[in-house]
C-alpha cells in the first residue's frame, strides 16, 4: 500500500533521521515509537505530504488516500462542523472534482473527459460522498454530540466539544491511511475507548504516535521504532506489550555480552531493565 525508501530529514543542516525504510500494508495498526526528539511527528508530516523529505522517496498505491489528524482545530475556527469534517475526510475535494467532471462531460464529450469522470466517480464512491452527512451525524451521536447543529461554527463551540468533533471526524473518515499524533491528549476516558473501538474495527490502516501506553497496547499490531540519526528504524510484528518484552530481552542480552567481554560483575542484578511497561 505504501513503501518508504531511504527517507531522511534535515533541518537547518542538522540530520533528524535518515535511512528510514518500511512498508505499510492494508489493515496495519502501527505504533510509531522512539525517544523524544527523534522526529516521529515530522515523519508523520512527511507521510501525509505536509512536508517534503530531504532525501529518499515514498511509493504509494494509486489513489491512496491519507489524512493527518490535526492536534488542534484553530485553523478551522471560522468553519462549521460540517465544513471542517468535509475537508478533513477529503469529501469536499472529491465532491468538487466530481461536479466539475460531470459539468465538463455534459458540455463536450471526449475520451479524456470520460476518463476524468470515471476517476472522479471512483473517488466519490470510495470516500462515501453520497452518505457523508448521514455518517457525520452518526459519528457526532457516537461521541455524545447528538444535538449539535452541524452548521455551528467551531469558534462558537467549547474546547471540550472541539475535541469530540475532532474524534467524530476520524470516525467519519473513509481514508485508507489515517495518521494520529497524540490523539488521546485531549480526550477523556470515554472518548479514548470510542477511538480504540473504531481503530480496531476499521478497515483503514493507522500510524499512531502516543505516550498513552494502554491506548497503543490496545490498538497496535505492529511497532516501528524510529531510532533517529542515521540508524533508521526497527520493526516488530507484534503488539506493544510483546514489543516491551522483546526490548527487555535485547537489553538483558546486551548486559550479558558486556559482562562476558570485560569479565566484570553484573552491576544491576537480574531484574534490571531499561524499559518499563
Describe the structure.
This protein has 9 helices and 9 strands. The chain has 277 residues and is an alpha/beta fold. It has a domain at 1-64 and 177-237: P-loop containing nucleotide triphosphate hydrolases (Rossmann fold), CATH 3.40.50.300. The strands form 2 sheets. A 6-stranded mixed sheet has the order 5-6-7-3-8-9, with helices on one face. A 3-stranded antiparallel sheet has the order 2-1-4, with helices on one face. Helix 2 packs across helix 6 (159-172) and helix 3 (91-107) packs antiparallel against helix 4. The two termini are 32 Å apart. Mean pLDDT is 91; it is low at 270-277.
Output the strand order for the largest sheet: 5-6-7-3-8-9
User: Overall mean pLDDT score?
Assistant: 91
Measured distance between first and last alpha carbons: 32 Å
- Helical segment count: 9
- H/E topology pattern: EEEHEEHHHHHEHEHEEH
- Any low-confidence stretches, pLDDT <50, length ≥5? 270-277
Shape: globular
User: How many strand elements?
Assistant: 9
Name the CATH superfamily classification of the domain at 1-64 and 177-237.
Answer: P-loop containing nucleotide triphosphate hydrolases
Write down the CATH topology of the domain at 1-64 and 177-237. Answer: Rossmann fold
CATH architecture of the domain at 1-64 and 177-237: 3-Layer(aba) Sandwich
Summarize the structure.
This protein is of the alpha/beta class and about 280 residues long. The chain has a domain at about 1-65 and about 175-235: 3-Layer(aba) Sandwich (Rossmann fold). Helix content is about 45%, strand content about 20%.
